[in-house]
Amino acid sequence: MKTGALPTTYFEGAYTPIENAKVSIMTNALQYGTAWFGGIRAYKQQDGSVGIFRLKDHVARFASSSKLLGVAIDTSPEQIEKIILELGRRNEPTGDTYIRPFAYASETNLSPNLAENHTFRFACYMFPLGDYIATDRGNRVIVSSWTRIDDTIIPPRGKISGGYINSALAKQEAIAQGMDECIMLNRSGKVCEGSSMNIFIVRDGTLITPTITDGILEGITRRSIIEIAHNLNIPVIERSVERTELYVADEVFFSGTGAQVAWVQEIDRRVIGAGTMGPVSTQIKDVFMSAVRGQDKKYSKWITKI
Ligand code: PMP
Question: How far away, in angstroms, is 203 Cα from ligand 1 center?
Answer without folding.
Answer: 23
